Amino acid sequence: MDLHKAFNINKDTWNKKVEVHANSDFYAMDAFKNGASALKRFELDALGDVKGKSLLHLQCHFGQDTMSWSRLGAKCTGIDISEEGVKLARRLNKELGLDANFVCCNVLDTSQHIKEEKFDIVFTSYGTIGWLPDLKPWAQMIAERLKPSGIFYIVEFHPIAWMFDYTVNPPVMKYGYQQKEAIYEEYEGTYADSESKMLSKEYGWNHSLGEVITCLVNAGLKIEYLNEYEESPYNVFPDLIMNKNGMYELSSGLYPLLFEVKAVK
């Protein structure tokens, strides 16, 4: 397929999402500006004290997580494909008096835009790898950008969750766990605002846990752990219920909603 066309369609959709998301309750912009962190317990527990460390945030949208790490003392660089997302991130960074840096590019081209700098931490989270057709160049780029003994951490929605078509109600299991073909969807709204009239046009790709782990190992990283969780901090799938921890889970509990991987170069 024409990957250049697919990436441009996705970029156009993400450019349109920026304004909708920035004004949504989901992203709680006023609270963020007043000091609230966008980070969740999984990544905070995994990465611990980041003060004084350099951190590269892949696919950062408009940078709330990036700037939340900055508030914790990290020296951060955020990467995103959306020009509008990066513009907003830079405006927020200046308004809040933070020192994060933002670069607009396809995440797979990161090493073409950041050629010399290496990082103590490379971080990505919640809805990122599904936009990539092949994880091998992704993993290689991560290894290139890490310092020796640097840490890579990903917390992401579980691949089983992406086997469903959510454009119908109830959702139907339609896509393969190891499907190689792209998934194309058109729908009104966005996960942050289902009432929005914006039209989302999106190409996505499914990636198994085996693919994630193997690509990282083949790029030279050592896996410290792979964990799977039946709960998510985000209510982004249909008919989730809130548990006693304030997290969201399936009433059936049939499959995990999240996984996390921590690896070291």
From TrEMBL:
Q: Which residues form a coiled coil?
A: none
Stretches assigned to the Methyltransferase type domain: 57-154
User: Does the UniProt entry include the keyword Methyltransferase?
Assistant: yes
A Gene Ontology biological process noted in the UniProt record is: methylation
Any GO MF annotation of the entry = S-adenosylmethionine-dependent methyltransferase activity
Question: Which UniProt keywords are present, listed alphabetically?
Answer: Methyltransferase, Transferase
Q: What is this protein called?
A: Type 12 methyltransferase
* Naturally occurring in which organism (per UniProt): Patiriisocius marinistellae
